[in-house]
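Hi there. Long-time user, first ticket. I'm pasting a complex I've been working with (about 489 residues overall). I'd like to know whether the download I got is complete or cut off, because the file seemed smaller than I expected. Thanks.
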Amino acid sequence: MDIKAKIIDSLGLDRTITRLAHEIIEHNKGSENIVLLGMRTRGEFLAKRIQSKINLIEGTKPNLGTLDTTLYRDDFRIRLKQPEVSVTDISFDLSGKDVILIDDVLYTGRTVRAALDAIMDLGRPNTIQFCVLVDRGHREMPITADYIGKNIPTSINEEVKVKMTEIDDEDSVYLVEIKNS
Amino acid sequence: MSLSSNHLLGLKDVPKEDIQLILDTAITFREVLERPIKKVPTLQGKTIVNLFYENSTRTRLSFELAQKRLSADTINFSKSGSSAAKGESFKDTVKNIEAMKVDMIVCRHESAGIPKYLTQISNAKIINAGDGRHEHPTQGLLDMYSIREKVGKLEGLNVCIVGDISHSRVALSNIYGLQTMGANVSVCGPSTMIPWGMEDFGVKVYNNIDKAMAESDVLNVLRIQLERDAGVLIPSVREYHNYFGITQERIEKNNPNVLILHPGPINRGVEISSEVADGSSQVILNQVTNGVAIRMAVLYLLGTKSEE
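Hi, the file is complete. Here it is re-exported in full:
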């Protein structure tokens, strides 16, 4: 795995998150009815940061939950490695809410499809909006994001690596090349 | 991470990592059970047979519910009302069921070793739901889950299994599983109900319930199985209750913090008093809820495991 470019640095990441928070508030005309759902693993931390940005701007903290979509995946039959499940942690009702689903990278769209099914089993939200830090293209489903941090056109042999200090040692986004062995 | 085996026949020789994985995975499914829609699509398209040659309420319902919550297709077989009553052999019955293309078989049988035999005559993944006096692994797992949920750990805990050990498959699965997880396991009961050689398992034997209670963090109280002729092992159920019954007075006198488990069905006033069965020391109904989560975890881990 070779690093080809650093696309977003620590300062840039903070600015991007600030903009995303503003866009979410603007689009929803405030933050009263919104709830944030971060998708494991890095979407969770992204959601937490967006929550504190919204708190800075609006003075209110929207509810924050984490969603694990493993049980809704469509690739159990074809995967060789069994995916590890973790726990969905949503301590509030989603019914009637504007749910902002948050993830780090949008690629094939299959995870979002699984997330939509998972959310539907938890309640009937007013709207579901999707916020993503990086859209790298190559969709396999008719899915698009409402809030995009950065569009990064990639080739299929590349990968976007998001690093966040909560679990990595830095805040940054890298474009890396996957070597076919 | 995935399980090292394609079947769950017992907890003997199941490595610690596997037990840990099942217990941790069950936390996920415990959350699913609290949702408004308690169903996930994970095992869609998988077919599971519940092959029950022996009576069961809790285990069969629990497995069936776990399968439905995972969106698997299930069919149920019970001995009465089937061709087994017409004299069809076990092997033929299984071969016929397998010809209907099933992915997993959950089996309960009065003979020990039947689940192991199933792995030899079938290509399906096998889960033992209790075989004779041998093992009942999912019960052992849900007991461990319930203890861990309440106490926070298993390692170093003193767990005593009380009652008819010699007739109990729950006891054996508990002993194997808890020992693997680092707990100290003991048994307590009248000597007619304790098999020879428990010490060889590294299991301490008590014949006095007060002493056992005082020295244990957890008591797993087994049912006196009157239908299995347990009556010949004790003079009367009243005498058993007097000497070994778990009562509120005993708990208060010996160990007010002791945690009481019971695999059900309970005989009120025999192995456990009504007061304790409904009291604050016990987690009997938690065990039932946790049982569904544990079975979902086992079905998920085996059902989505890829064959290499």
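A couple of notes from our side: Chain A touches chain B through 23 residues (CB under 8 Å). The longest helix of chain A spans residues 10-27.
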